[in-house]
Design a protein that fits this description.
Blueprint (H helix, E strand, L loop, with lengths): L3 H7 L10 E9 L4 E3 L19 E5 L7 E5 L5 E10 L4
Parallel strand pairs: 2-3
Antiparallel strand pairs: 1-5, 3-4
Length: 91
């Protein structure tokens, strides 16, 4: 069953219409070594005192601590597992 949290999170980008069919990917993501992100990042920052960079960055959606999100920059760190179709049915 698709979680209500996933649907609610995705609806921030496109409002849901009642009885319409939507499609969503469920993906596996390798976050690796992570650090706090910033909207200006186009690639992960370097790990202090090394010549390596972090694998991902993290932050909170609209400063809401219940909505932590991770950003990966390497396409080899994620792959789709399932393609899910669902219908939004309002209460």
């Amino acid at each position: 069953m698709l979680s209500r949290t996933a649907v609610t999170y995705s609806s921030q980008y496109k409002p849901l219409e009642k009885n319409k069919i939507y499609t969503m990917f469920l993906a596996s993501v390798l976050t690796g070594l992570t650090t706090e992100g910033h909207p200006s990042y186009r690639k992960p920052p370097n790990i202090p005192e090394t010549n390596k960079s972090y694998d991902s960055v993290t932050g909170f959606v609209r400063n809401d601590p219940t909505k932590e999100t991770f950003v990966v920059f390497d396409p080899m760190q994620h792959y789709p597992k399932y393609l899910i179709e669902f219908t939004y049915m309002s209460n």
